[in-house]
């Protein structure tokens, strides 16, 4: 009997700890499939910092390294420079990458480090209690913004992909979403392009993935997907923001 579909060899058999409806599992699957299809699983080192993905070393079937909150790009830089023949990636949330780790991600792009970042943006701090993140939308409620984020108090939400696309060392920048089968396929294509960019030595690559957080958004899994489509995508437009050789 022909095998139609099977779990990627890039994932372990460990059951994930993510909340029902969380799309981290989908994103893990896409990264694992890409690494397997590129035949680099045995040569890959992932870096997961503090956040919902802190236990990613249990799920990805490749070498993994833990990092302090926000410091994954710095750790990944050290690994790649010591072992330039390895495929190195970071897997980070928005509270991590866009807040405590803002300097790290800006400067890893500025230096053009040949690593790949998977940036999961659900517009809120997940693991640490649902606090407002730099990516939290105006009017969106959080434990540290119970009446909703305001421009006067916190400024506008930070668009990371647009910001990084202005940096010459960033070779590949794209924003995708995992809210529907069609967008999931596009997300996988972008993730594969980002890793190919690293394999070809073209510079820093990042894929921002719009994701859900039903628990901290206070929604059902289905409602959270609709909220992502109606609110996150309009403010954070999907698309490619930079490809190798482009000048912004």
List keywords for this structure.
7 strands; 35% helix; alpha/beta; seven-stranded mixed β-sheet; 248 residues; single chain
Could you characterize what this model shows?
It is a single chain. This protein is an alpha/beta fold. 35% of the residues lie in helices and 17% in strands. It is built from 9 helices and 7 strands. The chain has a 7-stranded mixed β-sheet, with helices on both faces. Strand 5, helix 7 (181-199) and strand 6 form a beta-alpha-beta unit. Helix 1 crosses helix 7 and helix 3 (94-100) packs across helix 4 (102-110). It starts with 23 loop residues before the first helix and ends in a 6-residue tail after the last strand.
Structural class: alpha/beta
Percent strand equals: 15-25%
Average of the residue pLDDT scores: 96
Number of helices: 9
Summarize the structure.
The chain is α/β, with parallel strands linked by helices and 248 residues long. Helices cover 35% and strands 17% of the residues.
């Amino acid at each position: 009997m022909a095998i139609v579909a099977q779990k990627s060899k890039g994932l372990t058999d460990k059951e994930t700890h993510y909340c029902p409806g969380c799309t981290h599992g989908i994103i893990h699957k896409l990264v694992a499939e890409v690494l397997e299809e590129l035949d680099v699983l045995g040569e890959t080192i992932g870096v997961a910092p503090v956040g919902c993905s802190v236990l990613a070393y249990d799920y990805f079937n490749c070498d993994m390294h833990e990092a302090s909150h926000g410091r994954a790009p710095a750790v990944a830089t050290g690994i790649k420079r010591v072992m330039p023949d390895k495929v190195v990636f970071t897997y980070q949330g928005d509270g991590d990458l866009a807040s405590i780790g803002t300097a790290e991600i800006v400067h890893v792009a500025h230096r053009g480090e040949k690593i790949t970042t998977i940036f999961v943006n659900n517009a809120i701090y997940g693991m640490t209690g649902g606090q407002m993140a730099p990516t939290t939308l105006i009017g969106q409620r959080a434990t540290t913004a119970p009446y909703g984020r305001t421009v006067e108090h916190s400024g506008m939400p930070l668009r990371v992909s647009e910001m990084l696309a202005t940096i010459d060392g960033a070779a590949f920048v794209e924003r995708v979403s995992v809210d529907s089968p069609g967008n999931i396929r596009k997300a996988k294509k972008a993730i594969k392009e980002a890793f190919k960019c690293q394999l070809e030595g073209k510079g820093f690559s990042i894929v921002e993935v719009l994701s859900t957080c039903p628990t901290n958004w206070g929604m059902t899994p289905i409602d959270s997907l609709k909220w992502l489509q109606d609110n996150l995508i309009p403010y954070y437009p999907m698309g490619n923001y930079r490809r190798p050789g482009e000048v912004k």
